[in-house]
Amino acid sequence: MQFADRLNNVETSAIRELFKLLGKPGIISFAGGFPDPAMFDVEGLKEASANALTEEPGPALQYGATEGYQPLRDQLSTYMATKGATVAANELIVTTGSQQALDLLGKTMISPGDKVIVEGPTFLATIQCFRLYGAELISAPIDAHGVKTDELEKLIAEHKPKFVYLIPTFGNPSGAMLSLERRKKVLELAVKYNTLIVEDDPYGDLYFHAAPPPSILSLSKDVPGSRDLIAYCGSLSKVLSPGLRVGWMIAQPELLAKATMCKQFSDAHTSTFAQATASQYLKLGRLPAQLAIVRKVYAERAAAMAEALRRELGDAIEFTEPEGGLFFWARLTGAGGKVKDAGEFAKRAIEQGVAFVPGAPFYAADADVATLRLSFATADVGKILEGVGRLGKAI
Ligand code: PMP
């Protein structure tokens, strides 16, 4: 087959290949990026979907508007307000997961050869998606407080990117949280260089103790001229259910209109049944209580993982304990002659019956092969202790 040239720059994800090994019986997996299915509010979703079919069977099962099902757009506008962002319902469109919002941004903004700045490391599917549109990706370094804004400024000035893509709150894979000071700096850079900033925020509600700083979008009200330079992607995947495929995108009117046009050719609209169910779910008012449970469970698991990693791997590994999200981002130090290559460590770990993802594929450039991502979301505390014990044997 002669496939389109645009596929030349994109490989199948290394992570998908690794997932094939996870079928081995007894494997404890820290490899996934999924929420724990035991946390799904099945009762609430049963009620919400039944209400959707009873109260609004026509719209819930019919074709719908590309922009999204209006009651859900209204609910999402309210939801954003609870997070400190004033967003009118017509300033957002519903997307099929936030993944589609990212794809639509790629489709509307990237011409082959355009430069896009991403964090190093960043979400793998975004790297693949932007490359599919021909982007040349520039990698901006991060630390535990998110992207280093001084370095980011240099890169923006040098490369004049089409946009900058950031996951400021509990990033995948970094787990990092961009500090308030740096969030403000990002907004100043957006204005100074007239650069679009894409804020991807699927994890912001999954904080363990204190709420994170407001989103970059929320803070834009304090920086004149910045609001139109922020495109925000939200998602119900990590707080309610990824299978619903409900996300949303907020952007200035012209960009939103172009993205809506592209969405029309892509899937016409996000499943009306999923949207009506999500809308009914939000109307039930169960999300805050549900989130409180999820936060508590993930906080316990993260704490257990941190303690076990310190105990079992000692100075062979370094990491910053995340304050929310689903991930630990760690680095092998090689101390005491221990393994330093995370790919090699992953193979040894699988032999011991535990899986994680090596960090290298998450870099658009200059991969650090000593890094790895561990998810604590789907294993209970007992499994976490057992799994990290196995990592201790593999190192
Ligand atoms: N952005 C990031 C950073 C993610 O980690 C994910 C899912 N793992 C997505 C976007 C896409 O999520 P969804 O399409 O389910 O909303």
Q: How would a crystallographer describe the biggest sheet? A: 8 strands, mixed
Count of individual beta strands: 14
What's the domain count? 2
The small-molecule ligands in this entry are: 4'-deoxy-4'-aminopyridoxal-5'-phosphate
What string gives the helices and strands in order?
HEHHHEHEHEEHEHEHEEHHHEEHEEEH
Read across the widest sheet, the strand sequence of neighbours is: 2-9-8-7-6-3-4-5
Number of contiguous helices? 14
Helix content: 40-55%
From the spread of the alpha carbons, the general shape counts as: globular
Structure, explained:
- The structure is a single chain.
- The protein has 395 residues and is of the alpha/beta class.
- It has 2 domains: 5-41 and 289-394, Aspartate Aminotransferase, domain 1 (Alpha-Beta Complex); 43-286, Aspartate Aminotransferase, domain 2.
- Helices cover 43% and strands 15% of the residues.
- The protein is built from 14 helices and 14 strands.
- It has helices at 14-19, 42-55, 57-61, 70-82, 97-109, 124-132, 149-159, 180-192, 216-219, 253-267, 272-284, 287-313, 342-352, 381-394, and strands at residues 28-29, 92-96, 115-120, 136-143, 146-147, 163-166, 196-200, 230-235, 246-250, 317-319, 327-332, 354-355, 357-358, 371-375.
- Helix 9 (216-219) links the parallel strand 7 (196-200) and strand 8 (230-235).
- The protein starts with 13 loop residues before the first helix and ends with a helix.
- 50% of the residues are buried.
- The model has no long low-confidence stretch (mean pLDDT 96).
